[in-house]
Amino acid sequence: MPPRPILIAPSILAADFARLGEEIRAIDAAGCDWVHIDVMDGHFVPNITFGPAVVAAIRPHTNKMLDVHLMIAPADPFLEAFATAGADGITVHAEAGPHLDRTLQAIRALGKRAGVAINPGTSETAIEHVLDRVDLVLVMTVNPGFGGQAYIPAMGEKIARVKRMIGARKIDIQVDGGVTRETAAVVAAAGANVLVAGAAVFKAKDYAVTIAAIRTAAVAGQGA
Ligand code: DX5
Ligand code: ZN
After folding, report:
1. Is the pLDDT of residue 1 over 80?
2. Is 164 buried (19+), middle (13-18) or exposed (0-12) by CB count in 10 A?
3. What DSSP assignment string belongs to 109-175?
4. Whose CA is closest to atom 4 on ligand 1?
């Protein structure tokens, strides 16, 4: 089976919020594949970001896939609002609620791509029984809550285990946290194909050059 295409998803958590529309248009023009939107509730994670209204405000600025990463608990009461706001994919954490299977069914019933995320301390076995319900598995490579943290090296082995577990299913493996052009090769070699990058993109001078460099490093890692 050929590897799934490498996709780069800048996380707007590191964008200039006062110029959000402009920032979205800039990463779109710079060649990003998806736009990653980190939703935090100050309860599931120790930080607060934004809700459906911000997703709706972003929507007119790009036709690219809006990849909404919900770090909220509970998630179920908000799924419809994010779908209506214009999310294309919605990812929930396996740790966020007791009825993961139901939540993933609800996302697909809204016509959206369903994703499931696991924190660094969570075993991949937590998602082994929901793989037929998802389009994406997100392996967190930092503890969620903040941008700009360092990649946790032990996650390479977990990415490889997730890849083995997925087998022939058509599921993207996404990584989120501490992705740079250096770690991009490592995560892609382990089996990740969707790379979220916050600080690495938005703190760079040239978004296009940076996105291209992360992509090149990941493609090289995938072939390694
Ligand atoms: C962490 C978020 C990430 C974060 C990644 O809770 O889910 O998407 O923005 O940021 P960087 O790439 O700066 O580590
Ligand atoms: Zn994220």
Report:
1. no
2. exposed
3. HTT-EEEEEE-TTS-GGGGTTSGGG-SEEEEESS-TT-SSPPP-TTHHHHHHHHHHHHTTS--EEEE
4. 147
Q: What share of the chain is helix, strand, coil (3-state, %, to 5)?
A: 45, 20, 35
Which ligand approaches the C-alpha of residue 148 most closely? 1
Residue where the block lists tokens 């799934």: 4
pLDDT for the residue 2:
84
Domains and CATH numbers, the chain: 7-222 (3.20.20.70)
Near ion ligand 2, which residues have CB within 5 Å?
Answer: 38, 69, 176
- Which two tokens mark 52? 């459906």
Cα(163) to ligand 1 centroid in Å equals: 22
What is the 36 CA–ligand 2 centroid distance (Å)? 6
Ligand number, closest to the Cα atom of 179:
1
Taking only the tens place, the pLDDT of each residue in 177-206 is 999 999 999 999 999 999 999 999 999 999
